[in-house]
């Protein structure tokens, strides 16, 4: 992406891909909103979605007599797409001045003037209202928790002005699905979603620190903070700690949910993948940081596969007894 596919204005440092199929297929009038919502960069949707899907799978595993909650997977998928778009819009509204001073983000719709502040605000309102309609399809506790997530979404863009650990706040926000996936299935709380949520925070600290290394020079110049700047050359040992803690907490969540032995095989593959990210990471090469960051999509699929493989309902359906 960076430096390989020019943006519509020809800025080779931009994170906008002019040739992305979403932008090619969308009507011209909607393309700026697609870019504002990052529909052309779906990795953020996956990273927001997976904690919710993991939690749904854990909830189903804890209630093997019930049918799997397939409809919830669809609701959470649509919700993640919309809420990630809403989060990006909030971020761009608050960061429009900063974004205009960073080469990678200068062509985004707000700093470039393609979308006005009023238009972005109306777009945000439409996203939030549609997300709320989806949330209303779930039980009361899940509706309450889902609405409470906005208390994390809106302050997030301000964290980089306040602390060198905005990635921790992102973890609180992006991992919220680990709580509401479980409540959507079971109607209550439990240790598995709590442990999964904490693991998601640690996982986010890892992958978003890698992502932040792309912008560390520009961030230092304009005065915004990140774990990449805070940890610097010592980043890799910290990444090992973040990912090691995440893997441990994911394992404890699976144990608390009563998952069978195939789960541990999946978790082992997750651990190896995360270890590869750290060992092979080239922190001073933005394209490699972006590639390692995006590879966390596979982390999500691997852990989901492990949870499903260790679920009692699946073994009953297949007629096997692990």
Mean pLDDT: 89
- Helix/strand class: mainly alpha
**Rg over CA atoms:** 20 Å
- Shape, per Cα inertia axes: globular
* Terminal CA distance: 44 Å
Helix content: over 70%
H and E order: HHHHHHHHHHHHHHHHHHHH
Walkthrough of the structure:
The chain has 322 residues and is mainly α. 70% of the residues lie in helices and 0% in strands. The protein contains 20 helices and no strands. Helix 17 packs antiparallel against helix 19.
Task: Give the helices and strands, then pairings.
Elements: H1 21-25, H2 31-36, H3 43-62, H4 70-94, H5 96-99, H6 109-112, H7 117-135, H8 140-148, H9 150-153, H10 156-162, H11 166-174, H12 177-186, H13 191-212, H14 216-222, H15 227-231, H16 235-256, H17 262-280, H18 286-294, H19 296-309, H20 312-318
Key structural traits:
20 helices; single chain; mainly alpha; disordered N terminus; 322 residues; 0% strand; globular
Brief account:
The protein is an all-alpha fold. It contains 20 helices and no strands.
């Amino acid at each position: 992406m960076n430096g390989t596919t020019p943006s519509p204005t020809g800025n080779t440092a931009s994170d906008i891909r002019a040739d992305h199929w979403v932008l090619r297929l969308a009507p011209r009038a909607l393309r700026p909103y697609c870019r504002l919502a990052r529909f052309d960069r779906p990795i953020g949707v996956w990273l927001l979605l997976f904690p919710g899907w993991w939690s749904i799978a854990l909830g189903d595993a804890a209630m093997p007599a019930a049918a799997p909650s397939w409809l919830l997977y669809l609701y959470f998928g649509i919700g993640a797409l919309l809420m990630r778009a809403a989060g990006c819009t909030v971020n761009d509204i608050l960061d429009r001045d900063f974004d205009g001073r960073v080469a990678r983000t200068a062509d985004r719709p707000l700093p470039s003037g393609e979308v006005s502040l009023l238009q972005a605000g109306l777009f945000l309102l439409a996203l939030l209202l549609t997300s709320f309609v989806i949330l209303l399809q779930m039980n009361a506790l899940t509706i309450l928790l889902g609405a409470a997530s906005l208390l994390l979404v809106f302050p997030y863009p301000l964290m980089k002005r306040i602390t060198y650990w905005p990635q921790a706040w992102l973890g609180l926000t992006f991992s919220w699905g680990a709580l509401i996936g479980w409540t959507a299935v079971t109607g209550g709380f439990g240790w598995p979603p709590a442990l999964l949520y904490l693991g998601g925070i640690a996982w986010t600290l890892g992958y978003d620190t890698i992502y932040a290394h792309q912008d560390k020079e520009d961030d230092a110049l304009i005065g915004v903070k990140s774990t990449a700047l805070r940890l610097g050359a010592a980043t890799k040992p910290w990444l090992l700690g973040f990912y090691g803690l995440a893997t441990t907490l994911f394992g404890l969540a699976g144990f608390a949910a009563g998952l069978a032995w195939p789960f541990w095989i999946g978790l082992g593959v997750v651990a190896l993948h995360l270890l590869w990210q750290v060992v092979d990471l080239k922190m001073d090469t933005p394209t490699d940081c972006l590639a390692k960051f995006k590879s966390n999509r596979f982390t999500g699929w691997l852990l989901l596969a492990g949870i499903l493989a260790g679920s009692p309902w699946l073994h009953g359906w297949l007629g096997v007894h692990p």
